[in-house]
Amino acid sequence: MQGEIRALTGLRGWAATMVVAYHSSELVLPAGAPTAFQSHGYLWVDLFFVLSGFVMALTYADRFADLGVRAAMPDFLLRRIARIYPLYAAVTLTYACVLALGLAASGPYPNLGWVLVLNLLMVQGWGLAPSLSGTAWSISTEWFAYLLFPASLFLALRGGWGRAAMLLMPALAVLLAMTWAADPPLAYLETPRRGPFDLYHAASLWPLARTVAEFSLGLLAYRVLAANWARNVWANPMTAAVVAGAIVALMAQPGTDLLIVPLFPLLVLTLAVGEHFLARFFASPPLHALGVLSYAIYMLHPRTNRAITALLARLAESTGKLGPIATPTLSFALLLAAAAAAYWGVEKPGRRLLRSLSVAAPRAPRRSTGVRS
Fold it and tell me: I need a labelling partner for 18 at 20 to 30 A (CA). Which of 42, 222, 287, 291 fits?
C-alpha cells in the first residue's frame, strides 16, 4: 500500500469545490450569464472517476498480485465500504426521514421503502432507482466499478499493451458513444444535460458505463508508469504546464468535453510523480484540507445548499441584500462547517469502526505488478 500523495488529495478537494460551484451557479453567477467553463463543471465528477481508478491501482495492485483475488478481494471491499458507507448511509437515511415526514417534496417515489433499500445497498445507480441524495448515483456506480476491480486490474496491468487495449478501447468507445446518446427526460431534481457525459438519469445505464469507462482510464494511467521514460516525462514542469493549460483552455470553449476527459489521466499522472509548481499548488495546506473533507463536501452539498440558500435569504431580508461576494463566501463557509462536522462525527469514526472488523490477510512475498508506484 502506498503513502498519501498530497497533490492528489488536493486535486480531489479542488474537484469537489468545483462541483459545488457548478451546482450552485445561481449563487455565483448573475442570471443569464453562464459560461463555457461553468457548463463544463459537471466534468469534475468525471475527474473523480479517473482519480479513483488510479488511486485504487496505486493502493491495491501489489496486494492483489501478492495474495490473489480470493484472499485480497474481501479486505479490499471491506476497506472501500469503510471509506464510503458510513457517511453515505447517514445522508441517505436522513433524507429518507425528511421525505417520510413530509418535510420535502417526495418526487417520483411511489415506493419509498423499496427505493431506500436499493439506495442503502448502493445499487440504485445501476438503472434501478433514483438516488435519495443527489450525488449518491456516482457512489453507487463506483461501487459497481469496485466489484469489477480484479478483472479490470488484470486487463490493465498484466501482459502487454495488447491486453490493456481490451480495457482501453471499450472505455474510449463508451465515451464516444455518449456523445451520441439521446438526452434523457428530466427526472425529479435533475437538471438539464450540460454536455455529452452529463448522464446520471436513474432509469439509464449510461451513468454506469460512464463510471466504469473513466475508472478504467485511471487504471491505465497507473499502467503508464511502467514505461522507463514515463516518470521523467510526467515529472517535467513543462508537461504539467501543457496538460493544465490545455484543460483550462478547452474548458473555456464549448463543445470540447470529448477532448477534456482524456486529459484527466494525464493530469493525475503529472501530479502523482511531479514536484513541480502544479504539484505544490495542489499539495498546499488549503487544498489538502479540502481534499480531506472532499467526500463530505460532495455528499452533503446537494441538500445542504438548499438549506443554506434559505438561511441566507432570511439573513439578507434582515440585514439588507448580501453582496455578490458575501453570498457565495458565506454559503461555502457554512457548507465547510457542515462537512467538517460530518467528517469528524460520522465519516472518520465510522471508517475506524468498520476497518476494525477487517481480518488482516496473510502477507505474501512481494511480486512486481509490472508497474512501479
Answer: 222
